[in-house]
Amino acid sequence: MSRPQMLDSLDQAVDRLLAHASGALVLAAPLGLGKPHRLLNAITRRVAADPALSLHLLTALSLTPPAAGKGLQRRFLQPFLERQFGPDFPVLDYAQAMRDDRLPASIRVEEFYLQSGALLRSSQAQRHYVSLNYTHVARAVAERGANAVVQKVAREPGGARLSLSCNPDLTFDLLDEMQRQGKPRPFLVAEVDPHLPWLDGPCAVPADFFDLVLDLPGPAPELFALPREPVNDVDYAIGLYASTLVRDGGTLQIGIGSLSDALCHALVLRHTRNGDYLDALEALSPGLAQSPLVRATGGVEPFIQGLYGASEMVNDGFRRLAEAGVLSRRVLDDADAMARINRGLATPEDQARLIAEGRYLDGAFYLGSKDLYRWLRELTPAQARGIGMTRVSHINELYGNNEALEREQRRDSRFFNTCMMMTALGAAVSDALDDGRVVSGVGGQYNFVAMAHALHDARSVLMLRATRAVKGRAAPNILWNYGHTTIPRHLRDIAITEHGIADLRGRSDEDCIRAMLVITDAAHQAALAGAAHAAGKLGEGRALVIPGNNAAALSRRLAPLRRSGVLPDYPMGSDFTEVEQRLVRALAWLKPRAAGIAKFNLLLRALSRGAPTDPEAMARMGLDAPRGLGERIEARVLALALRETAAT
After folding, report:
1. How far is the CA of 225 from the CAs of 85, 89, 191, in angstroms?
2. What would the pLDDT profile of 363-399 be if each residue is shown by its tens digit?
3. SS3 assignment, position 590
4. Residue 518 phi, psi (nearest 5)
């Protein structure tokens, strides 16, 4: 390759891209953190202003800060968002326009994964969504004839190499696929981001890997950091159940969100505070630690061999597991050596290689909090060598040139993913609604579920909350049937709600239904059993009702652990101040009570109670001296919520 062109001007970079594409740009950009926002904005503005130009953008997960909303939500979010993202964060123009159905005809955006729930009302996003397994994206992008790729990179400290760092997931696979299809190599543009952690290994490339390197002058905007969510009782129950299925010496894949945070916290408890962990399990479900499924599939003891992480996404949960010493099993890219290690026949050379080059975590992209990025930046060289950011085809797939190696590396794999709903027959709904609208995307979930059935001693675990709030009422998430499926029922394996674990693998339909009924909310068990009876899938007998399967009973069981700090609100750390944490609890309490008929009852209660008793929180919300009727009502409602959540 020739030496890349070095530029420090957005306009010049756009000129070069458009010249290469003859004005018709078919552009690929990484998902999530790897998007060069400033460059993408410059491209879309140029194309929108010139009818002779066109842009076809192929990407996913176009991250934008949430809208502040209105009312109490706005009072809370507006100051927080300004602090979290900064006043100059470059929001993606095309993402905002697409959300409002304002993209011009000359710009088409196709995404294979959407920011969760953010684009349900966007016709442009819904019409142009592409439903793909993560591992099939490179093929689809190549088939569309991508003629350019833009990507953020990190520069090697004191060196000339570049690192794809946060997003090596699809770039390498795309180039291989373009070559396989006999298509020209796309024009590769790197934007150097001084905030992006430098990571070596599979994601590091020489500078001439790219055709153009953009190094913009002046300070760069901060990296997009996800605000860390609080973990509630339901999340913790699911995380505790899930943690018992992880086998020491095994392999871990997890998704993102409060359920994964709860699982990782439970694994850290298991390893570092085993007495507290066992107490939590007993409070949640007496005898759980000795149940046959737990003894056969996982365990409850501290980790001696440790775990190896192999997950498309590296998040704060993996950071916490690494810091606590749970991620300590290392792997080599040598099938013969891994076979010897796994069978207790490792040579001294194998052991030396594990120390020198072994990896405890492999991922395809990372995304999380400011603390995650700080942790990655501050790793020692020896610690950093243990992380391999690599292509998604290696992480999410088993079949291929490296199958023998990957089978040895991924022993006793546990794949933990979240879904929105499940049917009583074991199918899962994770990405879309039954009217076809997409909530997020398939991503890698199907890949991992299928891999769990292909690997020996592996299990797929789908985690979901038993109910969700709909207009102030609890609606079931375990249904008899649903008009959309992400994971078909023939791939059913393990399902977990806050009410327990259902082992579905290899079971008959009737046994599957009975197992799912056990983890269903008590208020919805009879209706679900009735539907199964009507379909001839469940034998006659008294309808199952487990009275303890409800939110109030769960909270009573976990309350001592919450008060003692064993199960904290923010196990991965918090981006909120202490006052804001109180407000988060209060606003979460208000949300299901501010819809439907419950809203009228809420107002009556708020107006009948006394004056506010948390002046710091009221001041943070700008309601310490309310003016007018509207603000006085907001102040009373907030004061009620603060009182109701003060002791929780």
Report:
1. 8, 11, 19
2. 999 999 999 999 999 999 989 999 999 999 999 999 8
3. helix
4. -65, -30
Strands 361-366 and 387-389: parallel
Strand pairing report for 251-253 and 413-418? parallel
* Residue 46 contacts residue 53 (beta carbons within 8 Å): yes
**Rounded Cα–Cα distance for residues 63 and 30 (Å):** 11
Given a cut of 70, whether residue 499 has pLDDT beyond it is yes
DSSP line for 360-392: SEEEEEE---HHHHHHHHH--HHHHTTEEE--H
Mean pLDDT of 61-80: 93
Query: Which structure tokens are listed for 94?
Result: 């095309």
How many C-beta atoms lie closer than 10 Å to residue 447's C-beta? Answer: 23
Query: Distance (Å, rounded) from C-alpha 308 to C-alpha 246?
Result: 11
In 438-565, at which residue ranges do the beta strands (DSSP E only) sit? 459-463, 467-470, 473-476, 478-479, 494-497, 500-503
State the Cα–Cα distance between residues 191 and 309, nearest whole angstrom: 29
Q: Is the pLDDT of residue 443 over 70?
A: yes
Q: Residue 146 pLDDT more than 70? A: yes
Are 152 and 33 in contact by the 8 Å Cβ rule? The answer is yes
pLDDT grade for 319, boundaries at 50, 70 and 90: very high
Do residues 34 and 195 make contact, with C-beta atoms less than 8 angstroms apart?
no
**Residue 244, φ and ψ in degrees, nearest 5:** -75, -10
Where are the alpha helices (H) located in 7-159, listed in sequence order? Answer: 10-20, 37-49, 71-85, 93-99, 123-128, 137-143
Q: Which residues contact 238 (CB under 8 A, 6 or more apart)?
A: 259, 262, 263, 463, 464, 465, 496, 497, 498
Arithmetic mean of pLDDT over the chain: 95
Backbone angles phi, psi at 47, to 5 degrees: -65, -40
Confidence class of residue 541 from pLDDT cuts 50, 70 and 90?
Answer: low
H helices of 493-614, where?
509-518, 522-534, 551-564, 578-590, 597-608
Q: What are phi and psi of 469, to 5 degrees?
A: -85, 125
The rounded Cα 36 to chain-centroid distance in angstroms is: 21
CB 297 within 8 A of CB 319: no
CA 143 to CA 296: how far, in whole Å?
45
**Which amino acid is it at 87?**
P
pLDDT at residue 543 tops 80:
no
